Amino acid sequence: MPRISAPSIAEHREARRDALLAAAAQLMLSGTPFTVAQVASEVGLSRSAVYEYYASAADLIADVLVDEMALWVDEMSPMVEAEKDPLARIETWVRGVLGYVKDGRHILVKSAGSVELPEARRAQVSSMHRELVAPLVQALTELEVADVRQYSAFCWGVLDSAITRVESQGFDSISEGDAVMAFIKTGLGK
């Protein structure tokens, strides 16, 4: 029987899974595509051992993405929920998203977008994205926007443009946040 490095087999498997996720995340942050063999090498496992945990590289990437999006939501939720005014919640949300981008972690989400995820995993990622956008939708609903779905899509489009400008073109996240909020406030007549 192989040696385990934790008090139980379940904890050992969880530690290995965490190590695989961390290695994959590091490789994704480097901005270059990776193979299962590279992830295995980073963790000190054989390539076949990785397949005990993940059916494919796409499944591994999906787990990195889901974990990262859950962390993103968990970090932003308390800040957004602390605001009582709906417009202030939107601004906190916009600034939180751009702060996350500025910190460089968004590259994980962005790089995973170039991978064809299995259908079930794609649905899970879509659900996480809806959870991320939920504070915007809720605030727009409270502001009695006539077509919340349409306006939230417009807001996300403008924010996505700001994300691209910060990530790819080196624009300042604070001034981009100011511009996004000016757009949103104008559209709301505020």
What would a concise description of this structure say?
The chain is an all-alpha fold. It has helices spanning 9-29, 36-43, 47-50, 57-81, 86-102, 106-112, 119-142, 148-169, 173-188. 26% of the residues are buried.
Spell the H/E element sequence. HHHHHHHHH
In CATH, what is the homologous superfamily of the largest domain? Tetracycline Repressor, domain 2
User: How many strands in all?
Assistant: 0
Low-pLDDT runs of 5+ residues are none
Largest sheet geometry: none
Mean pLDDT: 88
Beta-strand proportion:
under 5%
CATH topology of the largest domain: Tetracycline Repressor, domain 2
Distance between the amino and carboxyl termini: 67 Å
* Number of helical segments with 4 or more residues: 9
The CATH class of the largest domain turns out to be Mainly Alpha
> What general form does the structure show?
elongated
Rg from alpha-carbon coordinates: 19 Å
Helix-strand makeup class: mainly alpha
Can you put this structure into words, describing what you see?
The protein has 190 residues and is mainly alpha-helical. It folds into 2 domains: 1-54, Arc Repressor Mutant, subunit A (Orthogonal Bundle), CATH 1.10.10; 59-188, Tetracycline Repressor, domain 2, CATH 1.10.357. 76% of the residues lie in helices and 0% in strands. It contains 9 helices and no strands. The chain is elongated, with a radius of gyration of 19 Å. It starts with 8 loop residues before the first helix and ends with a helix.
Secondary-structure blueprint:
Blueprint: H1 9-29, H2 36-43, H3 47-50, H4 57-81, H5 86-102, H6 106-112, H7 119-142, H8 148-169, H9 173-188
Helix pairs in contact: 1-2, 1-4, 4-5, 4-7, 5-7, 5-8, 5-9, 7-8, 8-9
